[in-house]
Amino acid sequence: MLKYRKSLQHSTLKKRFPEFVAFNNVPYSTEEEYYRRSLYVPYLDDFCNSLKERFESHKETVASSQHILPEFCTETDFYSLEAAFNFYEEDLSHKEVVQSEFMLWKEK
């Protein structure tokens, strides 16, 4: 590296720095606004996207488990809870027991 620098000092070539092609120059009026636009907002966007990717597969389970709430259970049957039951099957007792508990909850 030192040899290269010495040769540049003696040469007639001008030093060139690489251009930043994809560099994001955001307009700003204060330092706080600059950091918000260049760091904070992209970080939050990336964080939200990673959460969406992570929980996209659980969308059906969550939608199914909302049918346990009193607001929804009166309008649906036990089979609307099928995805949630399959997800929590190891933690729950037999399907028949859960179904009878759901029917009792629905009658209340």
Question: What does this 3D model show about the protein?
Answer:
With 108 residues, this protein is an all-alpha fold. It has a domain at 59-107. It has helices spanning 2-10, 31-55, 59-65, 70-73, 82-87, 95-107. The termini are far apart.
Distance between the termini: 80 Å
**Looking at the structure, what is the overall shape?**
elongated
- Quaternary organization: single chain
Overall strand count? 0
Encode the helix/strand succession as letters: HHHHHH
Q: Into which percent range does the helicity of residues fall?
A: 55-70%
Number of helices: 6
**Unreliable residue runs:** none
Please identify the structural class as seen in this structure.
Answer: mainly alpha
In round numbers, the mean pLDDT is 77
Characteristic terms for this protein:
mainly alpha; 6 helices
What order do the helices and strands come in, and which of them pair?
Layout: H1 2-10, H2 31-55, H3 59-65, H4 70-73, H5 82-87, H6 95-107
In short:
This protein is mostly helical and 108 residues long. Helix content is 59%, strand content 0%. The protein has a domain at 59-107.
